[in-house]
């Protein structure tokens, strides 16, 4: 089913797993990302940046996600990542996205609340979910760089006020992760996550998931992370394979010979991440 963030994270909350939110960097890789979720028996959140949405066309992302959700019988959410202005959000909602993120993390708390609230009002009227953000995630996203010294962890007291006043469906928190981190791994602040999870009752979101140690993922899920963003890892997998295949083949060879292996490489990453996100070991323990 083509569905919303609220829907898939509610189910994840009941069964204690997290839903992977994977950035589609082009249209080529999209079908295999959704097939990966189907093969793993999991819902998937496909997310796009504003620029990628404009490059491909919002309607085209919506059409592929909708048709594949129906044909493959898998729950697919189409989410707009890191939007900072209302017009971009309105465009995605009007063209059929089922979820949007308003990133007001750079604003003073009151202003972030006010603007997020306005987004929530518009989105909910259209049956669309909203993710808000509090605190700052390091690294570079959409050309905006946040250095180590400018990183601000999410304050649990602010989180209570923010969630109550805005009525967001999910909250992105800053607990030490960085956008675009690939080679090194980050030290996530689990005690802070526990503190936030104890006082806030909406699903929590991790950005910069590529930089998270895989052995930390269970701990994050067990403390309320219900949406787990992975972008860089897919980008690297596709590009590496593309360099290989385009280097090796003749220019007259059909393009699909070069591109199918790139999509397959992305599919393997998505399948692997979902296998961890399902948190099976932990759920087996609970069922016992
Ligand atoms: Zn992000």
Automatic annotation (TrEMBL):
Binding site for Zn(2+) 1: 82, 179, 207
Cofactor(s) for this UniProt protein: Zn(2+)
Cofactor info, note text: Binds 2 Zn(2+) ions per subunit. One is catalytic and the other provides a structural contribution.
Annotated positions binding dihydroxyacetone phosphate: 180, 208-210, 229-232
GO molecular function: aldehyde-lyase activity; zinc ion binding
InterPro entries according to UniProt: Aldolase_TIM, Class_II_FBP_aldolase, FBA_II
Signal peptide annotation: none
Residues reported in the UniProt entry to bind Zn(2+) 2: 103, 133
Pfam family, one: F_bP_aldolase
Presence of the UniProt keyword RNA-binding in the record: no
Active site residues according to the UniProt entry: 81 (proton donor)
Record-level GO BP terms: carbohydrate metabolic process
Keywords: Metal-binding, Zinc
Record-given protein name: Fructose-bisphosphate aldolase
